[in-house]
Please model this.
Amino acid sequence: MAARMLGRLVLAAMFVAGAALPSAAASDLTKIAEGSWVEARTANFVVLTNAGESRARYLVQNLEDFRRLVIQATNLDIDSNPLPFHIVALVGAGQLKSLIASDNVFGAFQQSYRGGLAAVNLTARAPDGTDSLQVTYTAYGPLYRTKQNTRTVGMDGVLHEYVHYLLEIDARRRYPLWFHEGYAEFLSTFDVTSDGRYKVGAPPMHRVLTLNKTRRIPLGSLLNAKGYEIGHENSDFNAESWLLVHYLMTDAERRAKLYAFLDRLNTPTVDALPVFEEVFGESDEAFSRHIRQYRRVAKYDVERFDRPDAPLPQPSIRVPPADEVREQLAYTLLHFSPRQDKGVELIEGAIAINPGNMRARALLAAVAITNKDIPKAEKILADAGPADVGDPDMLSLHGELHLRRAAELVAAAKPGWEAFVAAATERYRQALAIDPDHVLSLSGIARTWLIQPGRPPDDVVALIDRAKRLLPMSQEIELIAAHLHVKRGEILQAAQSYEHVVAWGRDPALVRQARERLDAIYAVAGHDLKQSTKATP
Model:
């Protein structure tokens, strides 16, 4: 499940929006945090789990194996992204629900300035399609009961969420929702065969069984879906998406047309169905007949690939301190759940255990900024003392507060804003000296140029380009880049970035802002620029 992607390029606003609710007891998460935790880490993955060391090691090694398959056998461009994929792997549906506030899901994915972020239930199970009839003989006659056999799908859920991340960081194209879910399902049954080969494409039986019980989603509705609401009640969005992707991916000719179709979707389109019909050379009705036949025959092909001989990266294993566990759980919760009170309880617990935990203090200040309580955020930062100069998150938040003050002065046409811009820039650059990939600081420096006069220099454009490479899924960064292009007089590039946000943004406020700027550009620049923008992928 891909969670809503919000983000505001301030640490606080990377969280799911929602007012802090009454302080209901968060003892469920506190008890979870007090358990036994292990972290397994490679350059590509960070797994935090309460399932034990052996499971943590297996998760990372399986993910590294899967990543090799993706690089070797798929059309994704993912080899150069330096941010790791973070996973909080829990044991139980109740634990997952406490963290992400969602029912009936195996896991969830969200973008994060630290990289991809997922929360999964390792003990999730689903039907395996081998139900049997049980007969119990009684004095009143036989009793018949269907026994539903299940299989563990926790690893499927981990891989599913990782595929969302891979699709998001593929810088060549943006992917529609149906492909996100269908491809994640298609690849999630990845396995290594007994003869040492990679296997991919085995049907997830719980999706196949769902298809047999539900009505089909019309192709046009599936292709144009912006949310999961069309999958409610009498149909299943993930199952239908998986069926379409499986049908298209397991035939070379159809696969080539699929890639051509996805390339066409890189430019904004009102309706994907006519484009689909043009690329595949047949009508909706004709194609839908093929899909129905494919579903009836149910001979779902499996593809196999040679496994490289090179050894897998071995994870480093450590037992994280109690305060760090609470901080990481809080960070995850604040991306997925509106229950800020639960996140704050975890953060305050982390600080109580270790007052020097700067990441926890940064989270607490970020929540205050989200709630527009700037005095509280300033106090939290001040209470941290000089220790915060070694933490990029804290430095970035200092920069954010300076930048906000500068923007207020500019809006009020008052003097003195230059000093605040200089202070913000200094803090952001201090953060980047510690972590050159700190996205909030890369974008922060770029944002300082949105309120000061003059043409943003090339090195500032390089910083926002770096942020885009780190988080190519971020429409907020794309919007900042568009604004910078306008200030530099690069109108075509600005229009292309605004078009990108309009086409792919999921935050209505961002889309509205991009649309307003785009309309203003076209009103001045005219029809030729509009045609040039739409013709450029």
Summary: Residues 2-26 have pLDDT under 50 and may be disordered. The longest helix spans residues 53-73.
